Amino acid sequence: MNQFSRRKFLKISAATFGTAAVATGVGSTLSKTSAKAQEKAAKGVKQIPTYCDICFWKCGAIGHVKDGKLWKITGNPLDDLSKGRLCTRGTGGVGYYFSEERLQQPLIRQKGTERGDDKWVVVTWDEAFTFIADKMQEIKKNYGAKAFSLFSHGQGGAFFKHTLKAFGSYNEGAPSYAQCKGPRETGFVLTFGEHVGSPERVDIKNSKCIALLGVHIGENVHNSLLQEFSEAMKNGASLIVADPRYSIAASKSKFYLPIKAGTDIALLLAWMNVLVTENIYNKEFVANYGIGFEQFAQEVAAYSPEWAYAETGIDPELIRESARELAKNAPESVIHPGRHTTKYGDDSQRLRAIALVNALLGNWNQKGGFFQPNSIKVPAYPYPAYPAKDYELADNPGGMWPFADEAVSTGIRETTITEEPYPIKGWFVYATNLIHSMPDRQKTLEAIDNLDLLVVTDIFPTEITGYADVVLPESSYLERFDELFAPAFRRPSILIRQPIVEPPNGQKPAWWMAKKLAEKLNLGHYYPWNDIEDYLRTRVESAGFSYDKLKKDGVVYGSTKPLYESEGAEMNFYTPSGKVEFYSQQLLDAGFDPVPKFTRHEEPTPGFYRLLFGRLPMHTFSKTQANPILHDMKSENEVWVNADVAESWGIKNGQYIRLMNQDGVMSNTVKTKVTEMIRKDCVYLPHGFGQTSERLKSTYLKGASDAGLITNVKIDPLMGGTAMNLNFVTLVTEDSWQG
Ligand SMILES: Nc1nc2c(c(=O)[nH]1)N[C@H]1C(S)=C(S)[C@@H](COP(=O)(O)OP(=O)(O)OC[C@H]3O[C@@H](n4cnc5c(=O)[nH]c(N)nc54)[C@H](O)[C@@H]3O)O[C@H]1N2
Ligand SMILES: Nc1nc2c(c(=O)[nH]1)N[C@H]1C(S)=C(S)[C@@H](COP(=O)(O)OP(=O)(O)OC[C@H]3O[C@@H](n4cnc5c(=O)[nH]c(N)nc54)[C@H](O)[C@@H]3O)O[C@H]1N2
Ligand code: SF4
Ligand SMILES: [Mo]
């Protein structure tokens, strides 16, 4: 890194100077005083509360500006999600500011080039918005306002959504649903009538027994979750981990179940079987709140631990003992539902099975199980009404996925390709690298090919920006105000994001871009506020809180309602029956299994291994690999290969190999991690590496991409999620890829 070269240094210090002033409210006076006085005023340390954007836990944080320069970012001790500490990624977040690879100016694809040619013309903001607005009007004239879709993952997406709705465009999607937590929400809503939500409502710090099936807490780092998990471990909670890979969490477990990938439903059915047949389920909870238990009990009678052994490879005694451990500690025991649940195509049913075991433990609204979350309803800004939506949304035409309760990103992609029920001709992509986050990349490219307009807002020249017609460079979270964050958690709260430093090259925040675009579209009246702070103040004050206090503390809290039944939490279940549905009539009516069934998934042929993937503690998806600080910690991933398998191939630890999938797609070179800590029938690759944007030099072809190898996808018939653990790879050594 040469970010401290003199030129850059001057640029940074000048930039920081002005912004620290804004944040402390002395900007106007500073501008009138002498340079010397300004210098003096900039001395010392200023602390500006905000919330982190390196992942979607959105921890409360404090930006420290020392002598006018960005110094560090730490956890906000007033905030429940960070508890005063940030994770490695949160701390390293400042690297975004120092990166020299950031997008700096708006770009328009050069006339006469193809999407993906990566040939650009630098334009002014005004030129960019004129270009976009003209194109939008043309598309609207030809296809209607419905021919647009927003894809977004991040707080700033709210402003683009507002502009698009004002234009009459309601279509949207995000990979954080149909490629992530969708099946979990469906499985839980079907059973308990409520979402798990984010942050998850799991009362893990009070749990006496925790089970994790394919949830790799420790590598998956969601700050307070990890802190609470450690607290529970310290307090002697027993841990059950089912994972084909000996994860960090597995290394802390009392029971480690090296399960064959794709067979979790068999294990869950066997646990239900043990709890019911040994009569150790929570009878009071089931009697008070359950419905359909008799039919359910009959169904699970068939799934003995011996039956499950044949599917999962887990010793029947281990299945029994672990089920008894869960029961012994109930209701202070919990199966954490995980988050990234789009794995095999029957995922909503797998998550329903997880919900059902939890229901047998009787842990809903109970200490050590799931608590009843609290949130502050922050009233929307009083905007003019949007034009009526007189068309069906394009993400789930005909409601073909009847239990989807958010928009299906890959459904929009499909509609864009097929033009059924109508053409989608414009995509707005905000802070989501669709090339890396939606599986079956060819389909994404095919859909992009069918567009008349692709606008991408990002902070780096990532893969998705390469296919754009217009690229809008956003200021990073360290440099901007943003939408408020009001999580549903133990205590109801509102958090604010505010600038700590000025953007290094005049990049702009989402709210500003969305507002300017609205003005170009003659929709300026949809932004009756002039400054983002007017907007934020109006909303915070209309929720009954002091905006000034929020700015000063970074977080404000409302009054907490009871979390547990024992404290008076109401036991309402928003299912059709108003009960916990052990047997689901609504699933049966829609043509699905009322109690989950086990289905066998395709297995790898000899010489192939199931491709599993997950997280590294120091990176988030594909969005942090170019952050210079986090890049220094880990610049490429490694593929985990079982030691016996590696030996049979003659592959040594640290050797570079390639992976080739069942469809002949070959990965970039990747280092092998030869280990005993993974089953022989799978390999494991941390997600987010092997990026292919040549303009982003620090990440270009560093490591291998799981996303590139995921060409086989199954769609969850309940909610439209794309299952991604259905791909098999073989190992290719240098002599063969060269020969
Ligand atoms: N550091 C970091 N933390 C993050 C994120 C990040 O990018 N970086 N992302 C956040 C987000 S949005 C999400 S969704 C979560 C994702 O984190 P999790 O919800 O924990 O989900 P996965 O990534 O699917 O979990 C991967 C684990 O599942 C195991 N596994 C794979 N297949 C199977 C199977 O068939 N059965 C079983 N029992 N185990 C299996 C893998 O070996 C691996 O240990 O992480 C969150 N936390
Ligand atoms: N193969 C595979 N696919 C997956 C997963 C997986 O593990 N493997 N995980 C799935 C899961 S759980 C999830 S939640 C999704 C996540 O999917 P995405 O949300 O699409 O995650 P990223 O790929 O990191 O894309 C984030 C993009 O935002 C940009 N960015 C970062 N900061 C800012 C900012 O401040 N402003 C703007 N405008 N842009 C910014 C980054 O440069 C990057 O291009 O992916 C899903 N898809
Ligand atoms: S868990 Fe880490 S990366 Fe995520 S918001 Fe919190 S500090 Fe930031
Ligand atoms: Mo996710």
What can you see in these coordinates?
The protein has three domains: 1-173 and 406-489 and 491-559, 3-Layer(aba) Sandwich (Rossmann fold), CATH 3.40.50.740; 199-371 and 575-589, 3-Layer(aba) Sandwich (Dimethylsulfoxide Reductase, domain 2), CATH 3.40.228; 609-738, Barwin-like endoglucanases (Beta Barrel), CATH 2.40.40.20. Residues 1-33 have low confidence and may be disordered. It starts with 5 loop residues before the first helix and ends with a helix. Helices cover 33% and strands 15% of the residues. It contains 26 helices and 26 strands. Bound molecules: ligand MGD (2 copies), iron/sulfur cluster and molybdenum atom.
The total strand number stands at 26
- Average pLDDT taken over every residue: 94
Radius of gyration: 26 Å
> How is the biggest beta sheet arranged?
7 strands, mixed
Tell me the strand order in the biggest sheet. Answer: 5-4-15-14-13-6-7
At the fold tier of CATH, the topology name of the largest domain is: Rossmann fold
Query: Strand portion, in percent?
Result: 15-25%
Query: Helix/strand-derived class?
Result: alpha/beta
Shape: globular
Number of domains: 3
Given as residue ranges, the uncertain stretches (5+ residues, pLDDT < 50) are 1-33
- Text of the CATH class of the largest domain: Alpha Beta
- State the distance separating the first and last CA atoms: 37 Å
The CATH architecture assignment of the largest domain turns out to be: 3-Layer(aba) Sandwich
Number of helices: 26
The helix fraction, in percent, is 25-40%
